[in-house]
Structure formats: C-alpha cells, structure tokens
Amino acid sequence: MVWKILLVLLISMVPLVELRGAIPIAVGMDLGLPEWAVLVIALIGNLIPVPIIFFFARKVLEWGKKAKWKPFKNFCIFCLEKGEKAGNKLLKKAKSGVYFALFLFVAIPIPGTGAWTGTLAASILNLDFKKSIIAIMSGVVVAGLIMLLVSLGVFKVIFGG
Known about the structure:
Helices cover 78% and strands 0% of the residues. It contains nine helices and no strands. Helix 4 packs across helix 5.
C-alpha cells in the first residue's frame, strides 16, 4: 500500500507531468486506492515543490547566467529573458488580475501549464509569495478535480462518447 501512495506522490512531483499525469495513471492502473485518496495524495505531491521553486528558481537561473559551461549559461539566460518578457506582457494586460490569471494558468490542465510553470513565472516576476501560493494552490485543486473527473470518465458520460 505504501508503494502505491509513494508512486502517486512522486509522479505528481515530476515537472510537466504533475497531477495531470499522476491521477490518470493511478486511476488507470487501478491501484486500489480510493479516488479521494488519489486526489489528496496527488495534490500534496504537486504542491511540495512549489515553495522551493518560488524561492530558489530565480536564484539558480541568476547564478546560471554566470556559469562557465555555455549550454547551461545560455539555458538560464533564455529562461530568464523569456520569462520576464512573457511575464511583463501578462502584467500589463492583467494588472491587478495577475493572481487570477496565475490561478487560471495553473487550473487549466493542458501541457505546459501547472504548478511548476506557474510558480516559476511567479518567481521570475517577483510576485507576492502569499498571493501567488493561494492562486497556485487553488489552481492545482481545480486541475486535480478536472483530471479526476476525466479519469473516471464523468465527462464522457455527460457529453457522450
């Protein structure tokens, strides 16, 4: 039983996969865990890296800009420049609604969105930690519920298929 919980927890911590992959995998593999438990475990696993990313991602990228190994240096510069450019565009459009935009970005379970990317964006933009965490956590809960419903086939029943 412990390995099943750890499997869901660890998969939900993986960047890009997150709970968007952990929940369908857990439901599809029929691990014998109740659906509510799969959701809670995946939520916890997805949120564990968030404070670490928020406080250290920008610092690592800034440090990487000074690296001697060119591929790493270029990657860090690319991430910072792209993140700042996209973030500033978002800030201009969203203005005071930036935290709602962050929530929506994390809540919509499509590839490239999620807690990792949303937290990285909040970190690069130097957004308020508490407001960002609330937006990200809320988005993760919504994404988790959507993925659980999709995994259980609820949308298939509602919309036909």
